[in-house]
Write a structure and sequence with these properties.
Blueprint: H1 2-7, E1 11-14, E2 18-21, E3 32-36, H2 50-68, E4 76-80, E5 95-99, H3 114-118, H4 123-131
Antiparallel strand pairs: 1-2, 2-3, 3-5, 4-5
């Protein structure tokens, strides 16, 4: 994130606790990623200062979206958090993704449901599923 902030090219908005940027790998027009400045794994680890800062950055980002085409701007949004299996998962970093369906104007839309954008499976799981034997119809 330090490199992104130094370059300042893909930063959409930021506050003391969060940064919203367009990731360099974005595949959707106007796709953004919300990142906390501090490392933690899930929403339940937000500090008392971070909770209102998250509300602030979400509000600011959605206002930016609405102002883009001067129309209510729909989007698919989701947070990625650590698994809830009881383990600590210290390597997981809480973050959010926004996938707006507006492509060039307020009338050109491409909708994908949240699962298609946010319900990703790991490459290992996909490999297992694809390689599972199937039963041929009789």
């Amino acid at each position: 994130m330090a490199l992104e902030e130094k370059a300042g090219e893909r930063i959409v908005c930021q506050n003391e606790h969060f940064v919203v940027l367009v990731p360099f790998w974005a595949i959707w027009p106007f796709e953004t990623m919300l990142l906390p400045r501090r490392h933690y794994g899930a929403l339940d680890e937000l500090s008392t200062d971070e909770a209102p800062a998250l509300a602030n950055i979400l509000s600011r980002l959605t206002i930016h979206y609405d102002n883009l085409f001067e129309a209510p701007f729909p989007y698919s949004m989701g947070f990625h958090q650590r698994p809830t299996d009881g383990s600590s998962h210290l390597d997981w970093h809480f973050h959010g993704h926004f996938y707006p369906p507006l492509l060039r104007s307020a009338t050109v839309r491409k909708f994908m449901v949240g699962f298609e954008m946010l319900g990703r499976i790991s490459p290992g799981t996909a490999t297992t599923w694809i390689g599972m034997p199937t039963i041929s119809p009789s």
